[in-house]
Amino acid sequence: MSVATVNDADLLARIAHLNAAYARCIDSGNLAAWPAFFADSCLYTITSADNYAQGLPAGLMYADTRGMLVDRVSALAEANIYERHTYRHVIGMPFVLDRIAERDGARVTCETPFLVVRIMRDGPSEIFASGCYRDVAIVTDDAALFAERVVVCDSTRIDTLLALPL
Amino acid sequence: MSTVVPNETHAFPSERAWPDEGLTRIPYWVFSDAEVHAAEQTELFEGPTWSYCCLTEEIPNPGDYRTTFVGKMPVIVVRDRDGAINVFENRCAHRGALLALDTQGNAKGFSCVYHAWNYDLHGNLKGVAFKNGVKGAGGMPERFCMEDHGPRKLRVAIVCGLIFASVSDAAPEIAEYLGAEIVAKIERVLGGRTPVVLGRFTQSLPNNWKLYMENVKDSYHASILHLFFTTFGLNRLSQRGGIIVDASGGNHVSYSAIDHSARRDSDYAKQNIRSEDASYKLADPSMLDGFDEYHDGVTLQILSVFPGFVLQQIQNAIAVRQILPRDVDRTDLHWTYLGFADDTEAQRRTRLKQGNLVGPAGFVSMEDGCVGGFVQRGIAAASGERAVLEMGGALAESTETRATETSVRGFWKKYRAVMGL
To answer: Distances from the Cα of A8 to the Cαs of A140, A146, B4, B27, in angstroms?
Structure first.
């Protein structure tokens, strides 16, 4: 059965699984695998609800190729200085807004709420970000990838710095 | 040039005397003392200084306003019906409540939610609810004169669309305050152009505001702490460039131009500095494919105005930064990312991509968000100790080398004059 004909519940399960794998990747520190969640030509950006509502396009991170995501990972590993910390993502149920059948799958527009706790190396765990992923996912028989992931943080405020991706 | 007269009225405890060495030693208590922090509001932010508020383009129409702060003083920045821009304290003259509760909006006037005292777009008190009482009883006394009551009004100055405000009549006119060289470098980036806001972000910094301003003015650290710049030849101390420090010391420009012939030079190799890592390559270097915007070869210009304003050009990433104290060890850094109205689609895309360089997640500015906190924590028990600022000598003047702390010393020169320290 091709995905183009898959029922809504199965499609939702595929996207929820994609999110679960995405969170597990970042939270376990396996950042090198993070770009593989995206299509070659993609959009990944982190912004605020205020900017998003006003149509302001700038992002705290802004990548329109998977290569730029690879560069983000290698900069974090090799170039940037920040205190060691980890995230714990809690990702909610995706809400599918639209699905378009494509030749070998479906292009799904959805929104998914998230909460990210940041755990600093010296102990403090704090709610670092809450918000909503505004995604376009490409779901085929073989794979599910993000063509777009716009991370819309509820707050305009970032504490100290934003090193690891959300 | 006028010089700022040191304030003699605020008496600090004697143990808060500035070190005899002058600008080459910074006592750590300036970053942690609550008394100093409180005095900065009255003597510095409300003193003979100009504080950046927002851009004229952010409030283009009559009634458009934004709320922000001068130090900790909440202010409303509003365009009136004549098109002029007014800045006044965001505080009702009655019992002190905020007048405007939103960050931005459009208003015909401002009415306090508490008791409906209302104000025009100049900050003049125009109405007091139940002023004449109810059914002949109560109300304000006959002698109450609305003209005698109102929020504090600030002086306003506009430079290339940047709105500055001053509480004090003692601040010199803005052109004199900035100095001709600083004005010219603001004009270089913004002159004759219509800026477009691409996004706004606020970064909470876990440190005193002055530690961030020191960092902005510190050309010595840039290519040591930030590997990203150095490796890709965006900013090296050996590049063509220099530092301008204005006569007051408080304002500065650091600039550099890429010189590809200087990418590998022995001075760097000899220092064995971590940031010399030629093996680091980008998978997608399109982010660095800038366009020639200013036709002068300068790819980096960081400009600061005392006390808390930065105008940044890093390639085609243009931004203004507003630095506001929140507490003795908390600072808000407000970023406004800019493009221009005549940008092509490709140019706009370049600016968005180069936005990765700056901001809280910036490849070259991420470290600046945490390094101030490293200092704040490092000096927790060191209020009797002092920082050393001797790189490049003891003066605070313009230089052609960036291996210097000259503009950091300039900041302290101005700070001491304003604070009477």
So the answer is: 14, 18, 70, 65
